[in-house]
Design a protein that fits this description.
Low-confidence stretches of chain A: 1-7
CATH architecture of chain A: 2-Layer Sandwich
Distance between the termini of chain A: 33 Å
CATH superfamily of chain A: Molybdopterin cofactor biosynthesis C (MoaC) domain
Strand content of chain A: 25-35%
Oligomer: homohexamer
Structural class of chain A: alpha+beta
Number of domains of chain A: 1
Strand order of the largest sheet of chain A: 2-3-1-4-5
Mean pLDDT of chain A: 91
Number of helices of chain A: 4
Order of helices and strands of chain A: EHHHEEHEE
Radius of gyration of chain A: 18 Å
Number of strands of chain A: 5
Shape of chain A: elongated
Helix content of chain A: 25-40%
CATH topology of chain A: Alpha-Beta Plaits
Largest interface: C-D, 54 and 54 residues
């Protein structure tokens, strides 16, 4: 029987008390597809709302810390590190966001990385939607996870 | 010159005081791709963390209300309506989340719809990652927007 | 068919766009039953964590403003007034908390009053539990509601 | 002299640095009294806002995590487990909510259990108030507490 | 008698229902005094935590929106505009932060401007404390206020 | 090279995983300068919004716990103790706020003390601005810090 089930199959926050705290790491990516001209303007800093990349990065980092408020069954985790990199690929008309989160805890931090990447992507959308409403946030996914019983995971490309 | 630029091109929250409050509506979708078996188990309610769909729906609705806390330049908006529908497509091994947000306000609610769809998708990921870590949140995008100066927008499929 | 049901009976935040904004008021009470000695000490300000009543009052007012973050289907409402009165009844060994909330909005504020009364009561419990762990928060209930289609409601004692 | 008093008797967050982290557990209940017909409709899922029980459960779990934001003097605690059970007693026209919270920490988690039970009860009220405005949240109380210096506590029924 | 007093002189959130919504504006400044070398490094972007000014600006804007969560008796206000300017004065070894907030509401937005200026200043401190722990946030003050019964206020320099 | 820089100099939350948890303490002060009559009224409790000092104290303590939500690069820290003292100096027409924060953690708590002092000062301003709009929050600064590699710091007066 799954450890996630309450006495009647109800949803509940999983009990992690028995797990020892270990070093955890999660890395997620999100890609934002846009029109070529939007990517070019972003690359040369010529966008109507200035400081787009810094705003997205900061929004992602702040959102990572609020993961347990957003995702109902997530445990509160004291993150020891969060970083977000944004790569503007003009040729592909796409921005790739890579978010990493780390903690020494009883449970994994993959959701923190997923939330950080998603919110950074949504912020990019918000800052650029005035010039390109049809942008798409595509492929938010976990690419790496380490620590915990399930061992190291790395997504094959 | 763009109305979004401060005296020195710094980021700032756009001034919307001059816009009249009108009826606004935004609809966004997010798709979560998963293994066929995961979709089947979800469709028949046989998942380790029970109540997956209700949890995702509630998480999305609650997140919509917190959009201005997550997206730095978003204005606080008193939403009059939020709804989230989840469609489990076993054949395609994919869940489609449709989030709609409405308000009578000076600014649009597309970010509220985008945030609601994204957080519902991330919650789905969280509730199912124990059985399928390689799920991908793909294609978070605005599909409809009405109200405001820019007129009606509907994304061509 | 109920207006609260989505296409498939799913939970959703009710659409209130059609309702006109009117003056709304809600009043709720909560009672905290305690040992006679606890009530006496509270009445004469002889409690280990000082400023108990002020802390409960402030906690209740602050919680009222966060109602839509706590109660999933509540709309964000710009409250125009919140007040909390605490009445220490030594003879009955009970504190009665009365919370009132007001707004000019499309939907009622009874949940804001209920949340304010409950959180003030829980704060009282927290501040006094060191000397009386068996206190009970009893009878959190709406006693008055005005504004909106359903007309004036006053609970018969 | 109480350790909770500041130099002048002012309220302050108690110093828990000297306490060793131990396994903590708190269990609280809340009862919601309603009209018999309301309980019957809830029991057979025939309510206007569907998914009432899941919404209450999720709201309670999410609120437990936000206890230190609501209760002014509560310490932030990394909960290892939260669960909420709702029991609909048609005969008694009453729902009993049992909330348990656990952590490995320097201070107790009884407030987290009390907040979870209260917010689940308030959410039940919110979801059902359209059909039964006179429901009463009664008897929010701690029923069990373990861990820490004060030893095991179990409320006699 | 003051309108801010409850029946027994208790604190409460002032009733603003009778005030008509008008255009409100508040401007506050904060000054951060630092060592000359710190100001020089900040001016030429040579600081260990890069993007200091953007981070401070974004933090201030986001904090303005959360004013009612921080300042207990503040009403929730839907801000129509927030902007923050930072001026690095190398000669004076000081950064001046100017925060403006606007809304169409029943109550003033001076606290929103004060909170924005303060949090931007604190963020500056956080980003630079590794190289200059003795920085001082000095002179957080309201410099302009318009809208509402009290008329236009402008601080004499 | 600074440990705070990402691959491209972008802002990120510093990695503290390698630091051992130690006992940390930070003390900050804020001074609020006001008109002599305001200080006198505050000292004798004759102010229009009653319970000013308790409200400021509670607001400061609650804000300390929310530091990582306000200051973008701050880590979440489980504070073991927070206290705020307010000293009303009628002769100097000034209130001095002293905030102390403590934790057993990998990183310092000086920002928690700075935020607590600032928000208590801003709350004082909010509660008294009706009678003295020209109050100034001056000299928010760290006066003591202990724990961590950088050793004990005490500001010379």
């Amino acid at each position: 029987l799954s450890s996630h089930l309450g006495p009647r199959g109800d949803v509940r926050m999983v009990d992690v008390a028995e797990k020892p705290p270990t070093q955890r790491r999660g890395v997620a990516v999100a890609r934002v597809r846009m029109r070529p001209e939007t990517a070019s303007r972003l690359a040369r800093g010529d966008t109507p709302k200035g400081e787009v990349l810094a705003t997205a990065r900061i929004a992602g980092i702040m959102a990572a810390k609020r993961t347990p408020e957003l995702i109902p069954m997530c445990h509160a985790i004291a993150l020891t590190h969060v970083a977000i990199a944004l790569d503007v690929d003009e040729a592909a008309a796409r921005v790739t966001i890579t978010a990493s989160a780390e903690a020494t805890d009883r449970t994994g931090v993959e959701m923190e990385a997923m939330v950080a990447a998603s919110v950074a992507a949504l912020t990019l959308y918000d800052m650029l939607k005035g010039i390109d409403r049809e942008m798409v946030v595509e492929d938010v996914m976990l690419v790496e996870k380490s620590g915990g019983r399930s061992g190291h995971f790395r997504r094959s490309p």
